[in-house]
């Protein structure tokens, strides 16, 4: 399946999702790439990463842009030439982008039990999230929390940010599909509005800085 979903978030913000079922060749033929992107593609080792990268270009084209409109800063943060904010994520079978008038971040993660093993490295104690470590909700919630922290990092990629010590996700229920988060790092105290949803066995999170 090619184009999978467009989520209209508000008048100026859209999330686009591609489900990758095409071969590398099919995707490659369908996009036009600038030289620097071709070089990047050649250096990628895994086929899955290459397809994720190309599917992002398919989404750009779907939204009326091309690879020529996209450039990266020295930290790897993507930007669009017309000033529209963009954030990008890919994970195995899916690629996603968010386009907005706000500085936003997006993250897509495959839900895996494995996340329980690293939970204490990035998340608060389970009771903070009213969560039983043995419930199925636990993996879902942990994956949201991980996605939020990755997405916050994509908005504010200051050197030295620790997922565990500087990014805090407010308690939430899965059904709510939204929460808030706080980046508390040195002099910075930035609240975020957070939204999330599940697509098949993936968790999609997007967020932006809250207007005060
Ligand atoms: C940059 C980072 C957030 C990417 O996340 P990821 O889950 O590996 O990969 P994703 O597919 O979700 O995102 C990749 C995209 O993020 C974007 N990205 C990369 N660096 C970025 C940055 N500094 N700022 C914003 N966006 C960035 C790029 O668009 C990239 O895709 P592309 O290069 O194909 O365009 C991640 O690698 C990272 O460095 N995280 C912080 C490390 C950390 O503190 N970990 C905590 C361990 S407890």
TrEMBL record:
Taxonomically, the superkingdom here is Bacteria
Gene3D superfamilies registered for this protein in UniProt? 4'-phosphopantetheinyl transferase domain (3.90.470.20)
Question: Keyword Cytoplasm on this protein?
Answer: no
Q: Keywords in alphabetical order, please.
A: Transferase
Q: Which GO terms describe its molecular function?
A: holo-[acyl-carrier-protein] synthase activity; magnesium ion binding
> According to its UniProt record, what is one Pfam family this protein matches?
ACPS
Q: What is this protein called?
A: 4'-phosphopantetheinyl transferase
